[in-house]
């Protein structure tokens, strides 16, 4: 057994009990003591899908944004379990990029937005952005809140800012497409969705939305073609 395979076995032995009982905080503590993100990234190249899945989960717990390209590469993997682990890990990185306090505040706001309880989300996110002006996920979440209340131009602005700060943010590219579609800019919306799928090609919901946008764009294309 070579050194990397031995490391893979050690990681599985460590991580599986924590993952099986859903103790991510306990696992993160153990990882910070015994594993570096660079060591975990090496295991993303293993042929064993179980190893890759666990390594991705672990990297999401202790990595930072420098780990994002390695995890984004796994969004193109053949294994649905690996893809799910990579997506989950990337969301952890995106949220954690604002530091412990920023992450805690944003998580509470994002939970409210998911429940469509966005009344105070915009103002809270604005304060968070003032404190953390390069926090891409804060812009993305404010874009989501603005979209929910029909402020599509503002939603597009914030989604684009999130993409500038984090070009791998498939969620922000998707939100940009949603805002462009709501503004009737269907061709631009398709371009934003294509960028989201270039990063994360397994988002079935985005592909379905693209088909809807193409149907809306079809009459305009027909007129332009002189049909």
| Poorly predicted residue ranges | none
Helix content: over 70%
Number of domains: 2
> How many alpha or pi helices?
13
- What gross morphology would you assign? globular
Distance between the termini: 67 Å
Using only CA atoms, what is the Rg?
20 Å
Task: Provide the descriptors you would attach to this structure in a database record.
227 residues; mainly alpha; Serine Threonine Protein Phosphatase 5, Tetratricopeptide repeat; 2 domains; 13 helices
Could you characterize the architecture of this molecule?
This protein is mostly helical. Helices cover 77% and strands 0% of the residues. The chain is built from 13 helices and no strands.
Write the layout of secondary structure elements.
Layout: H1 3-20, H2 24-34, H3 37-42, H4 49-62, H5 68-73, H6 80-96, H7 99-114, H8 121-131, H9 136-148, H10 152-165, H11 170-182, H12 186-199, H13 204-224
What's the short story on this structure?
This protein has 227 residues and is mainly alpha-helical.
